[in-house]
Q: What sequence folds into this?
């Protein structure tokens, strides 16, 4: 009897060891990615079959803001997120003492100027209101696009760090209204013009090709600077599951989907 108990104990320990090893080997079989609903989650869905073929399940958690996806990634709740460009990520790292990095670039979303109460830039009246995203990187991007249309001029060297306080010459006394990025499209009825991020314009049913007055050039510095990335915790960028995620996203199938679906509102960068 004692011998039987000893054998059973050994078998139990061996089984537990094997289960433990199997759990370790399969720990990354499910990839959890945080994403904005449009277009990021939609693009991830197109990449799903390639990931399944590579042996990975994909879990997508959708977010409606630009803060929580990085908080969740930084806390280890996500394996990666897909919603932001590198300047925004770097600003988050600096402000939160985080170590998130880019594993690769997927696409670029040109921002556009959309009409609200006023139909054209030339028709802007003195004191007109223009809504822009209120986060630092996207506000600067919006101000640079407005400056390029001759609406005002910015202080020399303001560049990608520009704020409305850097407006140097404002002959029409344009008022810049800072709005949370996800809400800018909803403010159109209250302002003369609005500068809207590509993903939120899509969500609002706006077409960058037919509704926008002006857009960023796809070959501009902005296209390189503000490409949307897959972000991960530092040290995870070469992990096998992250490599598989990138390969699935940077595929001809995804490229065709982006081009056919978004008609210039989303531009592949691979």
A:
């Amino acid at each position: 009897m004692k011998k039987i108990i000893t054998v059973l104990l050994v078998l139990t320990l061996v089984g537990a060891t094997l289960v433990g090893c199997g759990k370790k080997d399969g720990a990354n079989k499910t990839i959890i990615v945080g994403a904005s609903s449009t277009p990021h989650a939609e693009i991830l869905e197109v990449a799903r079959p390639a990931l399944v073929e590579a042996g990975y399940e994909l879990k997508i958690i959708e977010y409606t803001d630009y803060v929580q996806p990085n908080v969740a990634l930084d806390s280890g709740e996500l394996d990666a997120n897909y919603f932001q460009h590198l300047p925004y990520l770097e600003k988050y790292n600096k402000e939160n003492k985080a170590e998130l990095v880019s594993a690769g670039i997927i696409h670029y979303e040109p921002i556009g100027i959309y009409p609200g109460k006023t139909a054209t830039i030339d028709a802007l009246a003195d004191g007109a209101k223009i809504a822009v995203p209120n986060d630092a990187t996207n506000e600067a991007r919006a101000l640079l696009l407005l400056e390029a249309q001759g609406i005002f001029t910015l202080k020399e060297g303001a560049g990608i760090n520009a704020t409305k306080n850097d407006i140097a010459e404002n002959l029409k006394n344009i008022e810049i209204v800072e709005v949370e990025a996800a809400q800018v499209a909803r403010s159109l009825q209250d302002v003369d013009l609005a500068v809207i991020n590509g993903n939120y314009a899509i969500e609002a049913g706006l077409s960058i090709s037919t509704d926008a007055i002006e857009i960023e050039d796809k070959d501009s510095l902005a296209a390189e600077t503000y490409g949307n990335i897959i972000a991960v915790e530092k040290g995870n960028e070469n992990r096998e599951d992250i490599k598989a995620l990138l390969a699935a996203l940077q595929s001809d199938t995804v490229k065709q989907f982006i081009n056919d679906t978004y008609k210039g509102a989303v531009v592949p960068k691979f």
Q: What stands out?
A: Residues 153 and 169 are 5 Å apart (CA to CA).
